[in-house]
Amino acid sequence: MELKTTDYCLLESVSSIEDFLKLQFKASGNKLKKHFAKKFLNRSLNAKSVLTLPLNFINDGAINPTYIGSPLEIIAEDENFFVFTKNSNQFVHPLTYDESDNCLSFLRQTRPELLDVNKENYDRGLLYRLDYETSGVMIYVKSDELYQNLRENFATVAKEKIYWCWVQGEMTLQGEFKHAFNSSEEKGKRVKVSEATGVGQIGEFAIRPLQFDSTTKRTLVEVKLKTGLRHQIRAQMAYLGYPLVGDTFYGGPEAQRLYLHALTYTLEVNGREYFWDSKPHNFNGL
């Protein structure tokens, strides 16, 4: 249960706010550094002082129950999985309590019992993540045991991951491509792509053009993702000379959105094949 107040009245003096928070909230040093400046934590407080704390701290790790985004389309549900379509320009999970336009806040509002999975982590039962700008199939696992098993073996369990994207130019390339990826995982940093002979993780996908629009000079491309690296499709397509439409971060032209959509995911779990797809809406590359 989340705490609703941010004001605390101290009954006795404390040597520092840091000591009080560690005792009262069982907060680790890393958690305190995440929310407060060292100068604030070092302050001493007298008895009957009022300490005001942000809700993001006292509810750290909780999911906001108020969802303010567009409704999410539910694709399928059974005893193991809850599958839905993520909207573009939306986070899959929050990083702070006050974020409420994300997929997990939608679940908290509509299906709160699902959030009992993997409760110590922000992504709960989400099997993977999609970039903020990307839309498409999202898979939520409904039990801790299955979740841990699938996350540890995702590379072999995921049999097919198909994406659609619009790229700038008339693309004629087709086939499988491997490149080396170097990324510090820092926010705001582009992924560096080079030939597969270079140093770095190997990213692999297969691509084929589906449709060329002669008016906009843009091509709809099917991507079969073999690996799953940060910004892989975006960076790899840009390296090949075909940046995604709307992906100005990697040199693409401005557009109504970044045109990347997770179309199909196929899993094989305990000898059973699961297949889910999500046709994109308003996906015209303009």
Quick recap:
This protein is 19% helix and 29% strand. With 286 residues, the chain is of the alpha+beta class.
What can you see in these coordinates?
The protein has 286 residues and is α+β, with helices and mostly antiparallel strands. It folds into 3 domains: 7-58, no CATH class; 62-152, Pseudouridine synthase; 158-286, 2-Layer Sandwich (Pseudouridine synthase), CATH 3.30.2350.10. The chain is built from 8 helices and 12 strands. The protein has helices at 17-25, 29-35, 38-41, 55-58, 103-110, 144-152, 154-157, 232-239, and strands spanning 7-9, 50-52, 73-77, 81-86, 135-141, 158-168, 175-182, 192-195, 201-213, 218-225, 260-269, 272-277. It is globular. The mean pLDDT is 90.
Termini, distance in Å? 45 Å
CATH T-level fold name of the largest domain: Pseudouridine synthase
Q: Helical residue percent?
A: 10-25%
| SSE order, one letter for each helix or strand | EHHHEHEEHEHHEEEEEHEE
Mean pLDDT: 90
User: How many distinct folded domains?
Assistant: 3
Number of helices: 8
By CATH, the superfamily of the largest domain comes out as Pseudouridine synthase
Morphology call: globular
The largest sheet is: 10 strands, mixed
Radius of gyration: 22 Å
* Low-confidence runs of at least 5 consecutive residues: none
- Shape-level CATH architecture of the largest domain: 2-Layer Sandwich
CATH class of the largest domain: Alpha Beta
The total beta strand count reads: 12
Q: Structural class from helices and strands?
A: alpha+beta
Strand content: 25-35%
Write the layout of secondary structure elements.
Blueprint: E1 7-9, H1 17-25, H2 29-35, H3 38-41, E2 50-52, H4 55-58, E3 73-77, E4 81-86, H5 103-110, E5 135-141, H6 144-152, H7 154-157, E6 158-168, E7 175-182, E8 192-195, E9 201-213, E10 218-225, H8 232-239, E11 260-269, E12 272-277
Parallel strand pairs: 5-11
Antiparallel strand pairs: 1-2, 3-4, 4-5, 6-10, 6-11, 7-8, 7-9, 9-10, 11-12
